[in-house]
Amino acid sequence: MVESVTRRSTDRQDQQFPMATPVKVYGPPMSTAVSRVLACLLEKDVQFQLIPVNMFKGEHKSPDFLKIQPFGQVPAFQDESTSLFESRSICRYLCEKYAEKGNTGLYGTNPLAKASIDQWLEAEGQSFNPPSSVLVFQLAFAPRMKIKQDQAVINENEQKLAKVLEVYEKRLGESRFLAGDEFSLADLSHLPNTHYLVNASDRGELFTFKKNVGRWWGEISSRDSWKKVVEMQKQTT
Amino acid sequence: MVVKVYGPAYASPKRVLVCLIEKEVEFETVPVDLLKGEHKDPEYLKLQPFGTIPVTQDGEYTLYESRAILRYYAEKYKSQGTDLLGKTVEERGLVENWLEVEAQSYHPPIYTLTIQILFSSKLGFPRDENLIKESEEKLAKVLDIYEERLSKSKYLGGDFFSLADLSHLPFTQYLVDQMGKEYMIRSRKHVSAWWDDISSRPSWQKVLQLYPAPSKN
């Protein structure tokens, strides 16, 4: 079905992620949503194959790709029993299907822990992601793509993000991680956008100048899983 | 103790209300007047630090973000009422997929339309007609994809009514009633049939009857 967008994995990918695995993620590692799924797979110790999608050539809008992701966005996901999209739902599916593998506490080990993680995952998706993803595009990607930055949009979204991070600063003064004492899917979901803002823009201080948010960012970004994702992003630029 | 749901007059809390009715779970409601700014009161912010609705209180336990609340109660009461999650990991995966589609692709434009068309004058700012036009175009594109999906699948997440469909009820009701944009639903054959099916569920009719929306702008 998607043969036309399937490419041979690079040699390095072949060593780490054998072609035999049915678990496939479609999309470039530099995409924030793709990297969210990669981080989860690595935390859960699930082998996967990364299938490149050349967005500059518009492969994400090709008829074959639209069959597995009708919105023409990355990532798309397949394994031996299903085909899914939307990075946060792929993460939830992986945590449920591979509950016993890798980081077994990633989505909580009891209903109340899971609900707290879902609460903060929703906060990420509804309050953190909108302004931070606009800033990631404007500050980290627009210059590379030679697209003119919109200062009014940058200012508006910086203000929105700053308000959200005030809530986080208070929360992270009371709790080591967002949903509780353990690193969870809720923290993981913040890695992709924050990474770009801290490392590829001049607005990193939104995070690093806040005592608790800064401490939290230091902890979550130094996890082995995230370091591997950053390495994958570097390899493919 | 009975679970308390804050803000029943408004759309997002209604996701929780219809879910609790489907799951046959008793609840109480606590009014929150957004126009008086009650959601920004220090007492409210202690429960919900982002100052949005809903929040639920279940004894000592507080939970916010409507879709997180949906997941919690749908799982907690899995063995009673309507099954809103599916029976297998794969079925649940598809429900989660389309619930995220609602959250990430459907909700933003329809929320913008709601604020601009229904609440702008109450909140004291002029309607932005360009923003309304843009949001309607974005929503139309999403509905085109739903039309295709619903031509192959009775409900969004599969062949059973689930959280993925339920999550669309409150704001879509605003679209077809108060916003006067029913044509967006009716012009799409499968979306239209799906809307009739989900909105005629007794649970949703009960929510509309018990908790009418605030009056028009």
TrEMBL record, chain A:
Entries under Gene3D superfamilies matching the protein: 1.20.1050.10, Glutaredoxin
Q: EC no.?
A: 2.5.1.18
GO cellular component, alphabetical, reads: cytosol
Work out whether the entry's keyword set contains Secreted.
Answer: no
Spell out the subcellular localization from the entry: Cytoplasm, Cytosol
Q: Which GO terms describe its molecular function?
A: glutathione transferase activity
The segments labelled Disordered in the record are: 1-22
Which reaction equations make up its catalytic activity? RX + glutathione = an S-substituted glutathione + a halide anion + H(+)
Q: What class of enzyme is it?
A: transferase
What are the BP-aspect GO terms? Answer: toxin catabolic process
Q: Where is the GST C-terminal domain?
A: 110-237
* Entry-linked CDD domains: GST_C_Phi, GST_N_Phi
Entry-linked InterPro entries: Glutathione-S-Trfase_C-like, Glutathione-S-Trfase_C_sf, Glutathione_S-Trfase, Glutathione_S-Trfase_N, GST_C, GST_Phi_C, Thioredoxin-like_sf
Record flagged with keyword GTP-binding: no
Which Pfam family is an annotated match for this chain, by its short name? GST_N
Residues of the GST N-terminal domain: 21-102
Q: What keywords tag this UniProt record? A: Cytoplasm, Detoxification, Transferase
Q: Where is the composition biased (Basic and acidic residues)?
A: 1-14
Task: Family membership, please give it.
Answer: Belongs to the GST superfamily. Phi family.
Protein name listed in UniProt = glutathione transferase
The taxonomy runs: Eukaryota, Viridiplantae, Streptophyta, Embryophyta, Tracheophyta
Report the gene name.
Answer: LOC108660428
From TrEMBL, chain B:
Please state every residue range assigned to the domain named GST C-terminal.
Answer: 88-215
* A single Gene Ontology CC term: cytosol
Q: Name one GO molecular function term.
A: glutathione transferase activity
> What Gene3D superfamilies does this protein map onto?
1.20.1050.10, Glutaredoxin
Residue intervals passing through the bilayer: none
Top-level lineage group: Eukaryota
User: Could you tell me which Pfam families the record lists for this protein?
Assistant: GST_C (PF00043), GST_N (PF02798)
Q: Family per UniProt?
A: Belongs to the GST superfamily. Phi family.
Q: What is this protein called?
A: glutathione transferase
- The protein's organism comes out as Theobroma cacao
Write the lineage as a comma-separated list.
Eukaryota, Viridiplantae, Streptophyta, Embryophyta, Tracheophyta
The primary gene name is LOC18612217
